[in-house]
Write a structure and sequence with these properties.
CATH architecture of the largest domain: 2-Layer Sandwich
Radius of gyration: 21 Å
Helix content: 40-55%
Number of domains: 2
Structural class: alpha+beta
CATH class of the largest domain: Alpha Beta
């Protein structure tokens, strides 16, 4: 685990990192009259993320993603947090979630018509043109990747099963379990 939890600017992209987690903030202009179609496309994207296999989400490293329309449906904020650097995050998201899933919602933003929709590099340049580094960025669990967080959840669940097993109290009297029991009590 990284012990450096200070926010740093990423080498690629315009985001900021806190520990092992990076952020992306992009502000896009919505095409006139396209807000409803944009919202429908964003629902499809988020549904696809919710239904994606865990391995896809882990590889992308996406902790959080939100899209917010504002200024009377003329502007869109895309904010997300992820485990990797900017380039691998976008590359993996485009490859695993699909270029079409991104084109589905990006087509409702100003400037998208000029982008080569089949080129990951062109899509990345388009997103970067709307990206702004966070002035400040805080991540509550900065030194754990999404995979590490999920593993910790599985270990906690397994430990709870052990505690519920008959005979666990006697077995846990062994001094080797002292650090584990102290942590569980905190």
């Amino acid at each position: 685990m990284s012990q450096n939890t200070y926010a740093t600017t990423l080498d690629n992209g315009k985001g900021v990192r806190h520990g092992v987690v990076s952020e992306l903030s992009a502000f896009l202009t919505i095409k006139p009259g396209a807000a409803d179609a944009l919202r429908e496309a964003l629902v499809r994207l988020h549904d696809r993320l919710r239904k994606a296999p865990w391995e896809y989400i882990r590889k992308i490293g996406v902790h959080d993603m939100r899209h917010v329309t504002y200024e009377n449906d003329t502007r869109l904020l895309w904010a997300t947090e992820f485990d990797t650097d900017w380039d691998p995050y976008i590359d993996d998201a485009l490859a695993l979630i699909g270029v079409d899933s991104f084109a589905d919602w990006l087509q409702h933003t100003v400037g998208w018509d000029a982008v080569d929709h089949s080129s990951s590099e062109a899509i990345k340049r388009y997103v970067q043109s709307a990206q702004v580094s966070a002035t400040c960025y805080y991540q509550a669990v900065p030194d754990m990747t999404l995979g590490q967080i999920r593993r910790a959840q599985r270990i906690t669940a397994a430990f709870e099963k052990v505690l519920d097993t008959p005979g666990a109290a006697e077995a846990l009297q062994n001094p080797v379990f002292t650090p584990l029991l102290a942590e569980a009590a905190s």
